[in-house]
Design a protein that fits this description.
The chain is about 60% helix and about 0% strand. With about 240 residues, it is mainly α. Among the domains are: about 90 residues, no CATH class; about 50 residues.
């Protein structure tokens, strides 16, 4: 039972091509080494529950857990592998070069990248998918916080010193409007109590003579700078024009 039969077959083919000293004993891989790559046949397509029930019944009926009759190692119904076997496959495959390299050492052309990008547009991520992705990130972070932090640091370090992907590309009015609306809708709103607390805090700070002097000095310094005054003037003109 598999959601991707082709990928499942490639996994067994890769395992069958490992050198003798690096092999883990897997029945299907051993059979491929002895008899060659089989012809892939899909006998039934359906829901996971339906196919799982059929697999359990077929393994039991044909006794394929017995090496004389087949290559199954589990009872079926959950992908056909026990956690122990799945771990064996994972350990065996790690660090091994792919027997089907695909894009290894190659780069997609600009046209291919554009086609890949366009194929993903118009397919919004569902709330359930977002929740699953969020939960996966949280599990990774909680499982090994240091490794998670190192991975994030590695990702950000790789971008240091490089220009932003959208540098020099002006945004359209529609993009600016969307960003503005998103920011206004997502920022926290102050409650009457929080506004009262902020007001009381500002009044209390203003009673301090040193604070008053610092504010006056900052304002005078800014007003004495022609570039600052020019920037503020342009900013106000933009606001009024809108």
């Amino acid at each position: 039972m598999s959601s991707n039969a082709h990928a499942r077959l490639l996994l067994h083919i890769r395992a069958s091509r490992l050198r003798e000293g690096n092999r883990q004993y897997l029945r299907v891989s051993a059979a491929i080494r002895k008899h060659g790559v089989p012809v892939l046949q899909i006998f039934c397509i359906g829901t996971e529950e339906y196919i799982g029930a059929l697999e359990i019944a077929a393994i039991k009926h044909f006794k394929t857990r017995n090496p004389r009759h087949g290559y199954n190692v589990a009872l079926g119904g959950e992908g056909g592998m026990t956690p122990a076997i799945a771990q064996k496959i994972s350990t065996t495959m790690k660090g091994r070069p792919s027997q089907t390299p695909g894009m290894t050492g190659k780069k997609h052309s600009a046209e291919t990248l554009a086609q890949m990008s366009n194929s993903q547009k118009g397919h919004p991520v569902s709330d359930k998918a977002r929740a699953n992705m969020s939960a996966a990130h949280q599990r990774n972070q909680l499982a090994d916080p240091e490794a998670y932090a190192a991975r994030i640091d590695h990702m950000t370090t790789g971008r240091k010193g490089k220009p932003a992907h959208n540098k020099g590309k002006p945004m359209s009015k529609a993009q600016r409007k969307k960003l503005s609306e998103g920011w206004h809708n997502s920022r926290p709103r102050h409650t009457p109590q929080s506004n009262a607390n902020r007001s009381a805090g500002a009044k209390e700070r203003w009673q301090d003579p040193n604070y008053q002097e610092n504010v006056r000095t900052t304002v005078k310094t800014a007003l004495a700078n022609p570039e600052w005054r020019k920037a503020q003037s342009e900013r106000l003109k933009t606001i009024w024009a809108a």
